[in-house]
Sequence to fold (592 residues):
Amino acid sequence: MCGNSSMNSRFLKAQVERDRRGGALVLALLVVTLVVGFAASLMQVSSIAARRQLGAVDTKRAFYLADAGLAEAYQGLRIGKTGAVGTRLAPAVYGQGVFWVEATDDGDGRVRLDSTGMMGSARVVLSLVAEPGEVVVSSLAVFTADNLTLVPGTRIDSYDSRNGSYADQRGRDACLEGGVTVGSNGDVTLRGTATDPILVRGDVRAGPARALTMTGTVVVSGDTSPASNEQVLPPIDVPMTSKTRGVDYGGAVPLIFPAGEHGADYLHIGPDAEVVFQGPSVVVLGGLQLAGGSQLTVDTTTGSVTIFVEDYLTIDRGSVVENTTRDPGAFVVQYAGTVTAALRAAGPLEAVVYAPLAQMMLGSGAEIFGSLVGKEIIFTGPAAVHFDRALLESTTKSALPKTMTWRVVDLGQSGGASTDPFHLLGVDPATLPDPAAAHADQVLDVTYVDQSGFLQTYSGMESGFDWTDVQSLESLARDGQLVGEPLGSDPPRTLTAAERATVEYLKSDPPPDSFDTKTRLLAETPLPVEVLAEAIALGLMNSSDLKNVLLDNSPLDAAILTLVLDGTGTLNATDVASVLAAQGAGEGDEDG
Fold:
């Protein structure tokens, strides 16, 4: 009995031990299961977070791609392209992503650009509406809405106020050339004489389907074809500035208006009186009158001065208008009235003058530095307008398309399982165009000077045109729409071996004397413009010999006549008159 009891006790103890070990194993398995589950959950959360982070990065990069597409399309609009860049089937490749831009005409010249960028699995669509920029009227040297007539002795050229005074630049021929546009929405008439020729160093353009008439001695160095579109002169938006009562000033000391906004029913400056406007300032006047002997000083040292005149503008003969910095862009006169504005100041007027509803009358001998734009401009006698090419900078900026709206259309994932946009779209990145080559193809009509110096033309699809062969453009149209304006100047020409030999002879050391130079040039008449210009500029011949060479080469090219009228070379006044008279006689009535 005792033996059996001891055996049972040991059995029970072993059974309890086995049960205890089994429970520990179950507990251990449970703990391991929980740990594995927790680890799996952590891994899943980490994976989701990583995917989200990668998706956010892809979305940001796709956003930048879509924005780059808008920039590329916007640049295309600026140079006359449609704005469409690539397609979904053939997008533009950029780095490891793609974009394409769809352009839709919204009417009134507005274009909606929808740009799609894809990177990884992200897809972003941005939209922008743009409209064409307006031409700033200060970009026009002389322009009228009605007919324009230039009288004998008128001179219109250009300079750049950023490079010094007009007088400093006049001796440098290239500085006065280009940038000038003399035009009208109506007819343009230029009437010169041999003794008082008209000189325009730039383009002269009549309105669309209107006439340009030139009689007598007239030299136009630029293009004379009519404008393709009428120029709209925008109305003047006069600021809402409170006005004081009218001011009649005749004091012995200057009346000074400090910087800021000023308004008066009128301002009349009497003889021997002076009024000063300090910039930056905006002045609104019902009327402005300067009596003979008076002075209006605009102090633009610390800022620009803009004067708005609503009813009448009279600057009498003998009065003075002084711009202290001599920067025309810093002094703007906007005349909103309809009564004739008289501009008869003694000495130069350095300003931009704009009068869209009125006739402007220039006094004989007037000299304007800046620009004149109005309904009509009457030249009562010889006058000079020197256009400031610095004004073109604001024109370039304003001519850019204007952004009307910008918005995000779609910001998210593409919906595909792949993180490769090329796989999602089913395209091969090696066959895709870069952004510059992805613009919609257009019919191109271009006149250009090639790398060899010869004038060429091309008409066909732009994809078939080799832009690397272009040295300079003369004119460019896309789908029949002119991009910019023709340059109008003669293309560069490569001199022949004989012509180069003549130029080398003229530049030999020691230089040939007057008689030998004349003999050599007369033997090779007719001379090309390049050689004749070089001979004049070198000043090797006396006035009589130079006159003989010029007469033998009549009728003279506009560039040569320009040199003659500018006083380049050795011609005296009598011989200049002889050359111009011969030019007029040679052209006869065909000038018209």
